[in-house]
Amino acid sequence: MFKISGQGGAYFNNGRRSLISVLLVILFAVVLTCFLPQNPEDFGWASLIPAAFLIVYIFTTQRILEALTLASLTGFIMVSRPDAALDAAGGGLLAQGGQWFSNVMTAFSDATLAVMMDEDIAWLIIVCGLMGSIIALIEKAGGSFAFGEWIAKFAKTRKSALMCTWFLGIVIFIDDYLNSLTVGSCMAPLTDKHRVPREFLSYVVDSTAAPLCVIIPISTWAVFCSRILEANGWAPAGEGLAYFIKTIPYNFYGWIAAVFVPLIILGIVPIFGPMKKAEQRVKDGGPLAPAGSEKIDIRAGADMGGIPENPRMCNLFVPIVVLVASTVLFGIEMQKGVLFTLGFMFIFFLAQDLMTAEDFADVVLQGLKNMMMPLMLMILAFLFAEVNDQIHFTYYVITTATKYMTPALMPLTVFIVLSITEFITGTNWGMYIIALPIVIPLATTLDANVTLTVSAVLSAGVFGSHICFYSDATVITSSATGCNNFNHALTQAPFGLVCAGISAVMFLIAGFLL
Hints:
Mean pLDDT: 85
Largest sheet: none
Number of strands: 0
Radius of gyration: 24 Å
Strand content: under 5%
Number of helices: 24
Helix content: over 70%
């Protein structure tokens, strides 16, 4: 299985010990399920078990793929008890065990197929996979090299290099994936020259991407959220974007997280927590990237065949401009923008005689291969979210929290509760789909400020995904910057928690004032 770091989980390096640990987890899930209600809707607190197991396993072993797989399997075992009719008929132990095994395999297989056929996963594979191809093509054409040489003339210090990274992230605001992949891959060589730990680069990139997208009305996030707001009846048909704009002033985490980055870069807020240890590692002559980063780095092991004789920045900027422009012209449809840009790059690069059609195809395939690990992580995260949906994890957490809600406290409560669920499930857009149909009617019933409450949901999605080890934001940023996602999330978490703490206070104050 994929191991994020060599520092944790030494016990599991032995094959037999790993097998024993897996069998014990399965046995525990089977025994536990014997005491659960037949209907998953009645699981109650037990719906928290797969999430609790996932967190403990990740921190114990630092093996994220394995943790997601076992946590998902635990959930499927919980929802796959033998039929009550078989129990009533006095079915033997062997018959019940056989049906149980069959039920688990069916549930796991069906959920895996459903996830792979899900529109969001198909979108991820197409967009993220082909974004890997676009980045590989830009590197092959020498665009990234030329940009690095040019910007190095201006970013002559560590702080200026990081500030350039932050500024570039602000400029590319149309989509967080595009932002993270482009900025991370372009700026890593420059920040490497200034001995910046990859964890720090990852923090700057990640905390500028999604926070900006959620407070700018011309982004893929704005389009998606607008549709969700219309679908749930808060925004009238055709006015979703106008209602999304209403939430922007109250998207406290997005604003604070984006502003906090330059404060850290400039030293106004000192570096603290695990990030300080990463800084010390590099100062002591250690590697820029933490152990295991090559597994997720989209540039690791890729042989692009050297740099052209006359690398030009236009081979970076023109494709990016075409990508952004085509995405906007196609109605903020990132998938159409990516496909159009690939077609454009084929003509643009071959016309310059930078590569042959065969070379172009080879680089496209290499780029897709480079994205396999990030895509695998996100698919497993969606599988885990699927089983959490089946055991009613998010529903249980939200409905339990409503018992303690008042109109003034609702935005704060929603922000805290959904930040926790997002940290566990790792799918911010998926969380919005589940949470908003519950939160919007509840806010209306309690006579709470709906705009402020929806803003709390959106902020929770960004914050929770920032500190999650396997969220799309964490994985995409890690792959672009060449920093393993466990260390990226771990070092970013303290900064995110500070921003979340400030946001929580603001939601509390706004809840009483509005």
